[in-house]
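> call design_seq(struct)
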């Protein structure tokens, strides 16, 4: 069976997942043409190469995409999360996701 997991990441973890599909909870800072600059749950800045038909009224989104390099994700899909997300809690989830003590859960 193929493993189709997409781990939750923050900016600090992107470099560990080059070429892999990940999930990034982010606050949209700016959108210009086909690129968004977002703030990851750990406060780091990430460049997201957007889908052609991207549009959202949400301040926060979950980006599902492929990691290009340590600061860039190519979006494959996204989930609107609204205008109020506890980014500290989101980052805590990322930390737990990657904590070896919980490897069997995730």
């Amino acid at each position: 069976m193929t493993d189709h997991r997409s781990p939750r990441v923050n900016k600090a973890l992107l470099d560990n997942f080059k070429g892999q599909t990940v999930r990034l909870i982010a606050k949209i800072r700016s959108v210009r043409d086909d690129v968004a600059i977002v703030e990851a749950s750990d406060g780091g800045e990430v460049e997201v190469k957007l889908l052609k038909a991207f549009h959202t009224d949400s301040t926060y989104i979950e980006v599902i995409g492929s990691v290009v390099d340590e600061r860039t994700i190519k979006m494959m899909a996204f989930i609107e999360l609204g205008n109020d997300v506890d980014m500290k809690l989101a980052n805590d989830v990322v930390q737990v996701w990657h904590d070896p003590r919980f490897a069997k859960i995730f």
